[in-house]
Structures are given as structure tokens and as C-alpha cells.
Design goal:
The chain contains 4 helices and no strands. The protein has helices at 2-7, 15-45, 51-74, 85-94. The radius of gyration is 16 Å and the shape is elongated. InterPro entries: Glutathione-S-Trfase_C_sf.
Length: 103
Amino acid sequence: MRLAEAYCRFGETNEDDRHVIMRWLFWDNPKLSGYMAVSSYLRAFTPAPDEHVLGFLRKRIDDCLSVAERHFETNAFAIGASPSVADIADKLRLSPARTSCCG
């Protein structure tokens, strides 16, 4: 948000837009990324992850992704007609990695 404000790009045009951008950013961090990180860690670094735990995490991940999917079915961007910091942050988190440390 600070870079968007400093350079007057990829940010909000009014207080309502700012609220929506912040909502998208805070939706992703504790919900989607949190579940994805734990699931990835368990699958990559534990010898025998509990399938029930992985199933629970998968359900939560799918629920979170369905929120984004419903929004982006009718909207090209998180807010408005052009990308914002919310779009950039979510794109980085939701895109497959080009390389993987864990095979």
C-alpha cells in the first residue's frame, strides 16, 4: 500500500476503494495463504502427514478459492477497471511457482 500511495499507482481512488483493497489483502493473508502454507509444509517436510488434517486444510483452501473464483467470474480485477496492489499480491500468491525447492 505504501508504494502505491507513494507513486500514485495501483492504489485506491477513494476511501471506499481503499477499504476494498485492504479487505482483499487481509482476506488472503490469514485465510488462503495460511492454510496453503501449512498444507504445503506438511506435505513437503513431514514423513507421514495426517490425511484428515490435509483433508481439512484442502476443504478450507477450496472454500477460500471459491470466494475469489466467484468474484473474478464477473470482475477482471479485485476493484475497478485496472489492477491494484490487491491484484498484484493475489497474483503472486496464486500463481504456480516457476521453480520449486521441494520437487
